[in-house]
């Protein structure tokens, strides 16, 4: 029996060094995400932007959600919260009071995601879940400031309910993505990638190279579908674990790099690459340890030196509120075992809930999770949906023209820095978006269910235009969408002009 149990646990044993690398990767992504979001503090997170708090509470708020960013509609308050989040991400990167900063980083990430759901994408769900499960993982045990205050671990391998949750979560991402792709274009016709690359609003240069080759796109469509469906199974094979893990990591690394070259997906591919770092086997980590870790440790020492003057204040604050961190709290062995059992029990329960939530998105009605049970998912944001290009690829494509009519009757396109309006298709539709957050917002802007948000965007654009010196005054702004519906076999499409919103000063 013991041999069977040992065999079953093999796929879920992780290297502490790989978990530390996962922590650093997640922290780096957090910093990148904060930096990108910070360029739109007023537009996306203030009452002067595209989603004032009143509109959010009226149309897009769940009663179980929470958000510190909703405490004020001022962009200055948002800036303070962003600075705090960036500081916590740096602390997570170097492993300073790791468990505490993981929890606080997760709270602020949930908070900012809840503030504006109109700019969220699938990668945000995964980043949130990596932080959530990371709280239960010892990803600050090595390669961290905290580890210098502890004896070296007796072994570099680690197994717990949290390692099971981390691996199962990764598998759920790809299994659910594949199972939700129920359209024949994925599993029978092989045209899904053709339709994806027909969307000019996400088409990257690599996609332009692939687009003229239908046979290759058909093969890649089937390869993507069956890889997402079948490859996660290798994570649960209890023999030759190193080989299967490396296979999964290499294939997924190539897959997401390929996505980044063909489709404009923002941080999605980076988050997915970061998510697999914890799977690296001991042989790989030993090589990295010899070549890369010494440099990272020198950087960590420099950061620790800068944080040293603040240590007494932080310790006093922790004691005042009754907090303890992993590096300084060592309960007796008996209590420690009891606490670990309680923690593992909590993780198993949360993992079962997450699996049920995912089953509810893909299975028959008999699996339906009733509404009274959904409050937990919304409260701690372990709700998730992995419907990337599912059940079929979005067919409505096009580009925006922000047609501003001046007081003299001239028509200027605010989407092209005030150039004269033209209805010719831009050479690159992707270049019209400042970042992927705006691209996602423009996608949601099209849906009839989101019609309430249209006047806010229109009036925001008017205000920004008039606040810039030298701009001609406008008497009206029309948000126009030049709609193209993708058709099969490269059939030509005639754009249709749709006025989504009109506003005046």
TrEMBL record:
Key word Ribonucleoprotein present: no
Record InterPro entries: HTTM-like (IPR011020), Sporulation_signal_mat (IPR052964)
GO cellular component, one term: endomembrane system
Domain HTTM-like, chain residue ranges per copy: 11-284
Entry-linked SMART domains: HTTM (SM00752)
Chain ranges passing through the membrane: 12-32, 73-96, 156-180, 223-241, 247-280
Protein name: Vitamin K-dependent gamma-carboxylase
UniProt organism field: Hymenobacter mucosus
Lineage: Bacteria, Pseudomonadati, Bacteroidota, Cytophagia, Cytophagales
């Amino acid at each position: 029996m013991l041999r069977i149990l040992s065999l079953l646990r093999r796929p879920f044993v992780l290297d502490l060094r790989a978990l530390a690398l996962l922590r650093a990767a997640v922290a780096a992504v957090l910093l990148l995400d904060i930096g990108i979001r910070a360029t739109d503090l007023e537009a996306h997170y203030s009452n002067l932007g595209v989603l004032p708090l009143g509109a959010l509470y009226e149309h897009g708020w769940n009663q179980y959600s929470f958000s510190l960013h909703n405490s004020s509609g001022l962009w200055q308050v948002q800036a303070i919260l962003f600075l705090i989040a960036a500081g916590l991400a740096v602390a997570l990167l170097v492993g300073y009071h790791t468990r505490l900063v993981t929890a606080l980083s997760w709270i602020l990430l949930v908070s900012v995601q809840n503030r504006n759901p109109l700019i969220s994408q699938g990668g945000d769900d995964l980043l949130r879940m990596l932080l959530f499960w990371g709280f239960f993982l010892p990803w600050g045990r090595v390669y961290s400031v905290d580890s210098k205050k502890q004896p070296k671990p007796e072994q570099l391998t680690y197994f717990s309910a949290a390692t099971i949750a981390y691996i199962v979560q990764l598998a759920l991402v790809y299994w659910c993505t594949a199972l939700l792709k129920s359209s024949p274009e994925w599993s029978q016709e092989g045209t899904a990638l053709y339709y994806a690359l027909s969307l000019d609003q996400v088409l990257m240069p690599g996609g332009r190279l692939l687009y003229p080759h239908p046979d290759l796109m058909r093969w890649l469509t089937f390869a993507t579908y069956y890889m997402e469906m079948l490859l996660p199974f290798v994570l649960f094979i209890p023999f030759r674990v190193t080989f299967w893990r490396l296979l999964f990591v290499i294939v997924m690394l190539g897959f997401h790099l390929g996505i980044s070259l063909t489709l404009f997906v923002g941080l999605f591919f980076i988050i997915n690459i970061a998510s697999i770092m914890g799977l690296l086997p001991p042989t790989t980590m030993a090589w990295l340890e010899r070549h890369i870790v010494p440099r990272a440790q020198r950087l960590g020492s420099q950061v620790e030196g800068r944080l040293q003057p603040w240590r007494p204040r932080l310790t006093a604050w922790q004691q005042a509120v009754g907090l303890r961190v992993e590096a300084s709290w060592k309960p007796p062995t008996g209590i420690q075992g009891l606490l670990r059992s309680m923690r593992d029990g909590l993780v198993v329960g949360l993992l079962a809930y997450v699996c049920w939530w995912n089953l509810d998105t893909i299975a028959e009605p008999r699996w339906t999770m009733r509404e009274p049970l959904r409050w937990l998912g919304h409260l701690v944001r372990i709700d998730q949906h992995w419907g990337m290009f599912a059940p079929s690829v979005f067919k409505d494509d096009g580009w925006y023209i922000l047609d501003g009519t001046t007081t003299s009757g001239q028509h200027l396109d605010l989407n092209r820095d005030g150039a004269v309006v033209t209805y010719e298709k831009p050479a690159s539709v992707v270049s019209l978006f400042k970042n992927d957050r705006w691209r996602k917002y423009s996608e949601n802007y099209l849906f009839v269910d989101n019609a309430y948000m249209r006047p806010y965007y229109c009036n925001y654009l008017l205000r920004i235009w008039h606040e810039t010196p030298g701009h001609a005054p406008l008497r009206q702004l029309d948000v126009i969408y030049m709609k193209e519906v993708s058709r099969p076999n490269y059939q030509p499409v005639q754009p249709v002009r749709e006025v989504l919103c009109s506003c005046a000063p």
